Amino acid sequence: MKRFNITGTKYTPDISFDPNVASFSISGVSTPENSLDFYQSTYRILEQYALEGSQKLEANIRLVYFNTSSAKCLYDIFRKLVSVSSSGKQVIVNWIYDDDDEDILESGEDYSELLPLEFRFVPVPPGSDR
């Protein structure tokens, strides 16, 4: 498998996947014009990792804002991570949020209640690079 990167914009998040260190991350803002189109390549990468990956996968999610269509796409990404987990690999989701942003924290908590994944909630000071 190859590394995968999408550089974020004002409306789309940074997305990176490095199979060599089993790391997947999404960060920034997610309000693309067409969320389904934007996230298609990410779905394919995670589907491929479920079949070919050999290590546990750590997913770092640090979104500062996402719209409703992105919320559905995030749910679909988490479902792909469930598939990775079901293929015998450990999956850990680090939900990283500004410690004063209760809305983002609650969104992560909602996902964690809906999905059989290990979520870790990581508060950081607003504006930090973690």
Automatic annotation (TrEMBL):
Q: Where is the SiaC family regulatory phosphoprotein domain?
A: 6-123
Task: State the name under which the record lists this protein.
Answer: DUF1987 domain-containing protein
Q: Provide the species name.
A: Imperialibacter roseus
